[in-house]
## 1
Amino acid sequence: MKISGIRIEHFSTNLDPPFRAAWDPEPRRSFSATLVLVETDEGLAGVGAGDAMVGFSESGFERHFVGEDPLRIARHVRVIETLDFHAGRYWPLEAALWDLFGKVANLPVAKLFGGVAERIPAYASCGELKGPEERAESAVRLKEEGFRAMKIRIDPRCAQEGIAAVAAAREAVGDGMEIMVDLNQAWRMAGDSTPSVDPLTVVGIARRLRELDVFWLEEPLPLTDTRGLAKLSRKSGLRLAGGEMARTTEDLLACLEADALDVYQPDVVLSLGMLRARTFAETVLRKNRLFTPHTWTDGVGLLANLHVTCGVGGGPYLEFPYDPPGWTPERRDFMLEEPVRVDPEGYLNVPDAPGLGVRLGEEYRRVLGL
Ligand SMILES: [Mg+2]
């Protein structure tokens, strides 16, 4: 079997009312997703998504893959890393290759990745900044829907409001639900050069969150501040999480060596790719730390992260981007025939279908010629 072509198609859906992402000052009025299709001379095709694949087609990067055996994935990963060095993070291509591999093997990718688990409890990852009353109501609803955990974003520059929202959520759900908090301090919108909040401010926030029994504190400082993170970890008594956009395994190994993080979150379609994330996850788990990737892209990216996490036995929870009415499965997974949903027990289940189990909606299948 040979790769006969790589198709990249961009799609977008309107968001009315807009989604007010905590990490973006501009309300989002549309949401884009880029589908990557790997075609073969035998008619089988694989689908991936996640990163926007900017510059891939314009640079003619298909030429490094067309004519090659699609199942030589470790070879393709090395080539994608050379492209990443010059241009973007083209990990959705690797996801499409694994989707194809699973279809050839007639197995879900999670099985190819080790098959440790077939399902994992989801945490509702809330994306908007909401006041205490609204966040408490949302926490109660999530608990009623079966979620065992949720994540709340705090703007560290208005920490008191954020902490009040976490306190209200804790008060509303009691200790029957885990609560994580994300400060997004290793994350920047393009063009935003404001410095991160200083470590002492973060120590103060962390102390308050410890009292509220927060399960982990995410991105309290930039990832490059490994010493600051290690110190905060010792002082705060909280698990620290991060690494969602880490560019290389070495960046994350530096954190592991410095004992800077307790929870490692490389997104398999944005950060290290699937194979590298899996290898790194084994190291993390053997060091008795947690591996549970970021998944905030779209339904296809969520599925890719689900397969890797279940395959390698990560957890204990997986991110499920969900903060209705602003962020819903219908918006997130607009390209899928049916959105990915959490079962009534609060679990995400690995699809039974071969590959990633991506079932695109009819109009997207038509555009891709599937
Ligand atoms: Mg995050």
## 2
Amino acid sequence: MKRVLVIGSGISGMACAVRCAHHGVHVTLVSPDPSERSQSVMAAGGINAVIAEHEEGDSVACHIEDTLKGGCWLGGQRAVTGLCSHGEEILKMLVGIGTVFSVDKQGQPLRRAFGGQTYKRTYYCGASTGKQIVSALIMEVRRFEAAGLIDRRLRRSFHSALIYDGVCYGALLYDETLDKPESVLADAVVMATGGQNALFGKTTGSTQCDGYAEGRLFMQGAALKNLEFIQYHPTTLETAQKRMLISEAARGEGGRLFYERDGKRIYFMEEKYGARGNLMTRDVISREIGAVKEQVFLDISFLGKKTIDERLPEVRDVCVKYGNINVYTQSIPVEPSVHFFMGGLAVHLNHETNIRNLFSVGECASMYHGANRLGGNSLLAAMYSGGVAADEIAGRPELGSAPDFSEFIAIECDKMEKRQSSDSPFPVMYIRDMLAESMREHMGIVRDENSLDEGIKDADYYLSVAGRLRYDSSVKRYTNYSLTGILTLARAALQCAKFRKESRGAHYRSDHPQTGEEYRSATIITFDDGNYSVRLDKEHEYES
Ligand SMILES: Cc1cc2nc3c(=O)[nH]c(=O)nc-3n(C[C@H](O)[C@H](O)[C@H](O)COP(=O)(O)OP(=O)(O)OC[C@H]3O[C@@H](n4cnc5c(N)ncnc54)[C@H](O)[C@@H]3O)c2cc1C
């Protein structure tokens, strides 16, 4: 029987596992925490689709156009066409497995407007779209577990891929419960490990998604794509631990951004961009907020208690709980913060990386969103990409016997075990915090060459220190061994941002404010003998 190892159990990992199981392929599904704690459960706003019976002027062609335009033409026509054309099928499938979408009094599904969309096409489940989808998928996973087709293993973290001669045969994992490594051989490995939040520390996302897997695979020969495109969400609320998202739904329902000058409200987005100013794409609004000297506020109070309670309960609750703000009467102080990573593992249309039998899906793959993701499109992409990878794997022959990885495994386990003495005064978490601070400063909403060079200098220094660190027993073994991968990923992202000498979408260079036709291609970075080699994907190698 064909065997697949899926690493990460958010929406994309589960979508892939379930579809593989439908094809009769056996899946080992691993993650450190249960799916109920994946970042996917945080998604509140909704999922995009064009459903023929509710079109009212909208069309799949328009969804494709909005997605390509929002991504500043880096999304890849064929990829985006595939994504948007499957919206209806995916939504109907989700309903079929028990996802309960919000409906009006006539039982018609409700939709909301999200930034960069010509029509309302974001379907939602109250304030918990991600949670609802995760719950429905968990039930499907359990069904296939009972049938013996899915083997769910928790407390497992990725360590490295088992690669021989450009082909992936499985992965080395770390089993936190037994505190020991575990190798799993498979006919295909699917990475579904989400975003890269550790690069910036405080973001709107989950700290589980730290980017280590991408960094480590990069060091093992996997190409990465579009790392410079990091989405800052324009409206987040500061708290001690993280940035709380004030969903775009608040502006979709009519919320208005403003600042005050001389006691007068200035609705700066509407003044500059007209009636749809508050629903410009996230990159545009984040930059505009960044340019305002005063504190920016979001006002939803005028929508009234009924609309807020019915349509925006998550915004109301986040504001009361984390900011002591009563949104019925008060405006919300907002700031942009890192929210989503358009870049990640470079994959072909079938979601295979440049390493044969190594696939990547969901947020850790770079494919559909180009230079800027539209709200509601990533849940769709997580579902769609999981299915695409599963169909591809199901259609492939079994791999046959794997080479002997015992020497590689012994070396890696030895490194994982080692409690080195150190000539560095810094503990692991201190370096991670320093990296995050440096990245926030040098890879912000606006960048320039000098600042990126400073960031590169910092990352190189932390990398040089990381090799000399003492094992830190106050944090998990995973936190110790993941440091170099995270630092390498950050260094690669800075290199990509330096390479792209133009401004496009989420990548804004104050020293190159123009958008250059010669840069209308994805950035591909590889790690060749310790060197970071960046190029543009002019031949569209990763769009085929
Ligand atoms: C606050 C918030 C709100 C959002 N709202 C929306 C929305 O309304 N609509 C929308 O379309 N998108 C939204 N997004 C984005 C969307 O939620 C994510 O892009 C999507 O859920 C990612 O799914 P995923 O399966 O790729 O990854 P995740 O759900 O992040 O799952 C990653 C999995 O990988 C595991 N993992 C991580 N590292 C390792 C490792 N080293 N080893 C093993 N396992 C690992 C994790 O434990 C987890 O199981 C939102 C994001 C945030 C942060």
## 3
Amino acid sequence: MLRVAVVGAGPAGSSAAETLAKAGIETYLFERKLDNAKPCGGAIPLCMVSEFELPPEIIDRRVTKMKMISPSNVEVNIGQTLKPDEYIGMCRREVLDGFMRDRAARLGAKLINGTVYQLDIPTTDREAYTLHYADHSNGTKTGEMKSLKVDLVIGADGANSRVAKAIEAGDYNYAIAFQERIRLPEAQMAYYEDLAEMYVGDDVSTDFYAWVFPKHDHVAVGTGTMKAHKATIKNLQAGIRARAAHRLVGGQIIKVEAHPIPEHPRPHRVRGRVALVGDAAGTVTKSSGEGIYFAAKSARMCAETIVAASNSGQRIPTEADLKRYLKLWDRKYGMTYKVLDLLQRVFYRSDATREAFVEMCSDIDVQRLTFDSYLYKTVVPSNPLVQMKITAKTIGSLLRGNALAP
Ligand SMILES: Cc1cc2nc3c(=O)[nH]c(=O)nc-3n(C[C@H](O)[C@H](O)[C@H](O)COP(=O)(O)OP(=O)(O)OC[C@H]3O[C@@H](n4cnc5c(N)ncnc54)[C@H](O)[C@@H]3O)c2cc1C
């Protein structure tokens, strides 16, 4: 019978473990910190709520209004195209991760509160993998050293993945994202009831956008940059704090957090009987920096591939079997990654291109297309006339802002 270890119980690990356990496969889910609060904006698309059956209490805020704010502080309101039941979900990661992890355990995954330190790779196709880990169930940080033998490993241990290192999966470039959780006086918080803000400009992020996202009783204010220098990120955070200052008056910082965001997939995402999923594999999209849904989805797809290839745990899948998950993944989302990469290159080049970008966002057709692709992860081809209009608008906005000048 097949034994699978899933290392890391973020959205990726818990999704994989849930799918495996439901199929009756012997599954071990490792998480080093059961109260982990992953540094994250916590914005999730609507399709995640239905596909991953998330209950309403997981969602702190239902955002239906989004403000895009240009380098010269031109504000464009987007969200008019949303239907009454559509929204962007805002959640706290400690709540979302806790729910998904506990559900996987309830469905039969053996949850181990342990830090995996080492993975021994077997020399033959038949031998087991050995995980060495500190078991924290005795309540200590150092824990008790133990080991476990399994036939297959899923590395869902995030951007600093030890599993990726163990299989020499290769490195990726990464951005650093920084975030402050700020508790606001009631009147200020009311403004963010169902509204999120995205700021663009060299002062707030050289490569992406900065955000103010509402949560249960605070807002998350953050930014990211590929220039992973401590001073740079601090200056950019000061930039977003300055731009949003009038809306954050009287705010109190309750948490400061930072974490890497992978920029592209690792050179190897499957090696032997080890598969990487989520941030460990590098599934965050460019432009939007979105990773929660893609982590959960890649992990589910990987686990479904394992269930099918093993006949629900009756045989041990091979490297070729696992690689089928990559093929499916790249076929389904390859274009999404390419388009978002292109958008980032064109629109985040300079403040002039960012002004053009924000101007373009005022167009209803652009808003509809953007929201549909974000909320449902399906790029619905619009009719050719609308597509032509969007293309003309894009070029017009760029030319007006002289954004294409070298
Ligand atoms: C500041 C910031 C803001 C972001 N905002 C958004 C956003 O608004 N929306 C969005 O979609 N994405 C956002 N992202 C990206 C998103 O956070 C990630 O893509 C997502 O968390 C990836 O999920 P994962 O399960 O692959 O990895 P993770 O969430 O990193 O989970 C990995 C888990 O593995 C555990 N672990 C690690 N090593 C070990 C080990 N050795 N042994 C045992 N356990 C281990 C960790 O404790 C953790 O629980 C943001 C990222 C950052 C940094």
## 4
Amino acid sequence: MRCSFCNASAIISLRYAKLRLCPEHLSSYLERKVLRTINRYGLIKRNDKVLIAVSGGKDSATLAHILYRLKDHLGIKLVGMHINLGIGEYSIKLERASRELFERLAIPYVILSLKDIADVTLPDIVRMAKRAACSVCGLIKRYLMNITAYMLNANKLATGHVLEDIVQFIIKEFLTADFDRLSKLKPLLEGTPDGRLVTKIRPLYEVREKESLTYAIVNNLPFVYDTCPLIDERMMVFKIRRLIDNLELEHPGLSIYFLRKYNSSFIKYLENLGMNKTKFSTCNICGMPSTSHTCGFCRLILRIGKDPLDVLARVRSQIETMT
Ligand SMILES: [Zn+2]
Ligand SMILES: [Zn+2]
């Protein structure tokens, strides 16, 4: 199988685009695709300071590498972060891969370890708070990513969600009729004017998981392929993921069509209904934007018998070690 652009042998076949690509042409294809996404949705402007959240997995490694390749062209500054959740050997491997990636790309970075900032691990919190691992993990990561971006004066927070992740969430929120969450699965999610809620961007919005994995492999990026030991494969999101994969096999290009429709018409429909306006007040403990009197993060920290302000002071001192 030959590459569609040169004589080298192809390592990936993209049915939806009718392309077969060699390592070199896959890399340039994806870099162009991400640049197109950035321009189409206005994700990044000149002089932006972008914080890249790196998990240690393939998708955020690909994201960091592509933004690194595009940074001079875009005229932006990059900083990185990784959160160590303390899930045994799994978290150790993820942190190692993230550090290696940042060092290789010479991106200044900060590592936040849950154990260092709150004296507990994610499994401890799950046990103490009696809540599902994925929801606790999501809450902690969202809060820490945002506050890190805010403390670092980054005006954009970039995450490595790929096309299948987004389609999967859209279908899930649609099935559970959560219109507030459903309206947030856009490539750019505007923050608050005071900058406390940092604007989130998803540059891999139109990149497929297979493309991201192949990119990470051919560019020899450090990443961990293991799945989190705490996830429960029976959860609905994983069933939805299999459904999307099967549909895409029979109808190549269906997910991208779906995603474009979501952005061109469905989001506008939700906006017209006023479904996209989250009213933010201020958390009475940490002072960050919150939809309730006390934000979810501070409530979680209180629930496990810790002081949110002490945790935040430790977050700040970890971040200051970098700057
Ligand atoms: Zn080629
Ligand atoms: Zn709070």
